Amino acid sequence: MDPHLDPRKTARLIQHLKDQMDHLPPKLKAAAKYVIDNPGDFGLDTVRVSAQKTGISANGFVRLAQHLGYDTFEAFRAPFRAALTTTHEVDLGQDWLDRMQDQCPAGALQAAAARNQLNITSRSLRLMTAERTEAVTETLLSARRSYVIAARSSYALAYYFHYVGRMALPGLELVPRHMGAALDDLLEITPEDCLIALTFAPYSAGTIQALRFAAERGAKVILISDSEVIAPGIRTDHVLAVAANSLHPFGAIGGAMAVLECLLTHLIEAAGPEALRRIEAYDALRQDSGAYWSGPKLPRVSR
Question: Which residues make Cβ contacts (< 8 Å) with residue 85, sequence separation at least 6?
Answer without folding.
Answer: 92
